[in-house]
Write a sequence for this structure.
């Protein structure tokens, strides 16, 4: 085993530790408390829900750590499990409240994660299953979770619009759903409740007593029997969670089988071996990469069909363009190479390739390790702004599925041109080598130091050498910390932090899921030539 592989496997042990924190909030005690109420952890329910011996691709596991909400520092896994699995062979989006985390309460990050899952489902044309067990919004932050667009009400707006598009919305209530949370039951195309375990009401018994003076139990107010036999707000009543999961599968058993709207070839493993990625990526994220070696490590048969291989050597070759296959699915690839700095020649090359792939209706895979576009008078006069804007235009308007994988620096406008979060890729994955920020910590430290020095000098109090060193280190630590994949994942700037050996499986899933819907015809805005 190489030193490089040892280094990255140690970093991935840190990642695994974070995943375990997300998956086991409250430890065994919390699981035991669920069992006393006839409940199981939601991931166990999801395992029973999806087809046997198939994977569940869980999204955004690290969301919610270090948020610093009033009285709540961490919201493990954002209090909700989201991900994609197959039910009767069809890719399905699953969203499940984890009542072990503050009773399934919705914080701002919970809403963001829930609606990101809905956005993926709507964009890719997936049916949705909601496993609902929530105390509603986190009341101390009601102004941040209730009244605005992309707040709590948008969940139900999304459910209605997806239903109108023919995407099934199925809710299984495994606990209490109060106030706005009740609509997760009532807005579903079909909903299931569990006798003596599920409750759904616009106002719970305490609020009812306060508002009307009526004293009533939760069961009599909005239990499973009330909503399946009296109000008609739910459709199916089950006796326990096992029966309820089986009913969800039954409801989706006659859903039209999905097809993939792209030709597919026989899948082949890379020739380089499963550990090759660990060897080809330097330990420092600020060192250049060998793009060809990385593509050979993830592509079927290690085959990369390169386009414009010899265009503008040393400048145009800082980005590689061409085609690869991932588990049989072809993709047009835009891959950082070397130092990854984007010169105007590389920007022109990428814009042209994005347009070509769009007309060919082939998905785009952006492999990002770029510290930014080239600056300076030579580049400005050569049109780096103009051609960089063309690259951004092409990426923005490309109608084909777009997936981003960050394997290094992800700074400045390179984040834009390489299809970062603001450009709404179908999926965005990071690795432990990713560093996403407006600039590197070293660059930020230098820029901010010069500003601080000028301010101090103007007041007649110049900085001492020790103050200069301390200030610069403080800025470096701040920017490097905020660029780290854990920080970005906690705020949902990516959909998953991947271990290197997971890359092929996740890219294959993302490509296939993104191709469930037909690819529309290309349409681009104006370009500057």
């Amino acid at each position: 085993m190489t030193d490089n592989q040892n280094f990255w496997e140690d970093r991935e042990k840190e990642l695994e530790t974070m995943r375990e924190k997300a998956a086991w909030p409250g430890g065994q005690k919390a699981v035991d408390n669920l069992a006393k109420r006839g409940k199981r952890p939601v991931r166990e329910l999801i395992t029973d829900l999806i087809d046997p011996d198939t994977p569940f691709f869980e999204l955004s596991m690290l969301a919610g750590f270090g948020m610093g909400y009033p009285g709540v520092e961490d919201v493990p896994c954002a209090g909700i499990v989201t991900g994609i699995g197959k039910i009767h062979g069809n890719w399905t989006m699953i969203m499940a409240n984890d009542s072990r985390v503050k009773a399934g309460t919705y914080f701002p990050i919970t809403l963001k994660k829930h609606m990101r899952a809905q956005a993926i489902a709507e964009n890719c044309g997936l049916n949705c299953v909601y496993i609902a067990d929530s105390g509603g919004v986190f009341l101390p932050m009601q102004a941040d979770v209730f009244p605005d667009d992309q707040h709590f009400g948008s969940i139900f707006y999304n459910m209605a619009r997806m239903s109108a598009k023919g995407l099934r919305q199925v809710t299984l209530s495994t606990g209490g759903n109060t106030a706005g949370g009740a609509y997760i039951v009532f807005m579903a195309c079909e909903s299931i409740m569990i006798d003596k375990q599920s409750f759904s009401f616009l106002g719970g018994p305490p609020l009812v007593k306060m508002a009307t003076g009526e004293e009533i139990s939760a069961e009599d107010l909005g239990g499973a029997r009330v909503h399946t036999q009296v109000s008609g707000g739910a459709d199916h009543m089950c006796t326990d969670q096992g029966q309820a999961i089986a009913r969800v599968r039954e409801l989706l058993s006659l859903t039209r089988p999905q097809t993939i709207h792209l030709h597919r070839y026989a899948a082949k493993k890379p020739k380089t071996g499963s550990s090759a990625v660990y060897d080809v990526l330097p330990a420092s994220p600020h060192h250049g990469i060998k793009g060809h070696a990385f593509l050979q490590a993830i592509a079927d048969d290690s085959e990369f069909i390169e386009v414009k291989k010899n265009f503008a050597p040393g400048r145009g070759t800082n980005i590689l363009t061409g085609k690869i296959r991932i588990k049989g699915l072809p993709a047009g690839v835009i891959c950082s190479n070397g130092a990854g700095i984007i010169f105007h020649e590389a920007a022109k090359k990428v814009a042209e390739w994005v347009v070509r792939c769009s007309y060919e209706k082939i998905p785009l895979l952006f492999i990002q390790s770029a510290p930014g576009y080239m600056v300076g008078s030579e580049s400005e006069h050569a049109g780096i702004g103009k051609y960089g804007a063309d690259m951004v235009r092409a990426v923005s308007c490309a109608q084909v599925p777009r997936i981003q994988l960050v394997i290094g620096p992800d700074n400045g406008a390179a984040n834009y041109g390489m299809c970062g979060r603001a450009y709404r890729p179908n999926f965005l994955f990071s690795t432990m080598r990713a560093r996403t920020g407006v600039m590197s910590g070293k660059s930020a430290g230098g820029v901010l130091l010069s500003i601080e020095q000028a301010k101090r000098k103007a007041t007649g109090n110049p900085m001492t050498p020790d103050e200069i060193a301390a200030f610069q280190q403080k800025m470096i630590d701040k920017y490097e910390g905020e660029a780290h994949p854990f920080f970005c994942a906690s705020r949902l700037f990516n959909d998953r932090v991947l271990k290197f050996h997971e890359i092929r499986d996740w890219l294959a899933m993302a490509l296939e899921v993104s191709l469930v819907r037909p690819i529309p015809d290309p349409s681009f805005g104006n370009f500057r030539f």
About this structure: The first strand starts at residue 57 and ends at 59. The first helix runs from residue 3 to 23.
